[in-house]
Design brief:
313 residues, alpha/beta, 5-stranded parallel beta sheet, 15 helices, globular
Length: 313
């Protein structure tokens, strides 16, 4: 069984964070005696630095224990570092990608990996992606935008052109929503995370860029956020408003079948609906391991997308 949605932090990356802790404002805090330290960068998005994030042997053992034969490893979103100068971002990008490339080369039967890129400087991000794929990485994980710019913004064109040229897998993974209305009861994670995916995926669909960059394999986290489950509303808007339909060559519901989706939904009925809407061949098993909200083992029923992405893994 494959697991397309996992995260890891190599030792070289931890060493870089420690060396640059004053520049990126890295801090470690013990919040509970029964848990590992929580790591935060620039006082944002603290997460428990579990051993499974940093111990390669433990990571592989835990995956093997639940029947995962091959894991697709991604950098963690908290370390995208898009808020910092691109020179700093690229330093970590280089360390992270090189480390994951070496690990995946040494354990090619068990692991493939995606890169992180300097999305805050799209020309550099294009080079990061090119370099990473030359090292054997399969594409990149990116956030849902930057400083109010969604991924359809012309600012990101150099990156998308390179991703299309490379026929990359691009895994769009949200960060916690910073809407202050959600700042309670864990809502930034519970609904803010899928909401961020919903916004960027809807915008990308309506922009027409799925036709422009049709060689990119776009994978959406957490079952595509809320987009697949409100697609009827987009279809109705397509019928009613030229502002919705002007960039599109087909109905929005048909564009849903141009994305891939992980199965991290924790609800069999939701997964069945997604499979009926986009096709099982567009869904890949995923867990989000080792974050707290991970689905283990990943759902393998109604998730036949492994075959359609496998040539790129």
């Amino acid at each position: 069984m494959y697991d397309f949605h996992t995260h890891f932090i190599p030792e070289e990356v931890i060493d870089w964070i420690k060396d640059q802790r004053s520049i990126i404002n890295a801090s470690w805090e013990k919040k509970n005696k029964d848990k590992e330290d929580f790591l935060s960068i620039d006082n944002k998005w603290a997460f428990e630095l579990k051993q499974e994030f940093t111990n390669k042997s433990l990571y592989l053992k835990e995956q093997q224990n639940i029947g995962v034969d091959h894991s697709v490893v991604s950098p963690i979103p908290q370390l995208f570092l898009y808020d910092f100068p691109s020179e700093i971002t690229r330093e970590l990008v280089s360390v992270y990608n090189t480390s994951l490339a070496k690990w995946s080369q040494n354990h090619s039967q068990q692991i493939s990996a995606l890169a992180t890129v300097s999305l805050n400087h799209p020309e550099t991000a294009a080079q990061d992606l090119r370099d990473a794929m030359n090292m054997g990485l399969k594409g990149a994980i990116i956030g849902p935008g930057l400083n109010g710019k969604l991924l359809s913004d012309l600012f990101f064109t150099p990156f998308w052109e390179e991703a299309n040229k490379q026929k990359s897998i691009i895994f769009i993974h949200p960060l916690l929503c910073e809407d202050q209305r959600l700042n309670q009861r864990m809502m930034p994670n519970l609904i803010g995370v899928p909401w961020e995916t919903t916004i960027t995926a809807t915008d990308f669909l309506l922009s027409g860029l799925l036709d422009t960059y049709n060689d990119v394999k776009i994978l959406l986290a957490h079952g595509g956020g809320f987009l697949p489950y409100q697609i009827g509303r987009l279809n109705k808007g397509y019928e009613m408003w030229p502002l919705v339909s002007k960039n599109l060559q087909k109905e929005p519901i048909e564009y849903l079948k141009d994305f891939w989706y992980d199965s991290v939904l924790w609800n069999s009925t939701s997964l069945e609906y997604l499979a009926n809407t986009v096709g099982e061949e567009r869904i890949v098993p995923g867990s989000d391991f080792p974050f707290d909200l991970c689905e283990r083992p990943p759902a393998k029923q109604l998730a036949k997308g492994t075959e359609s992405l496998l040539p790129f893994i």
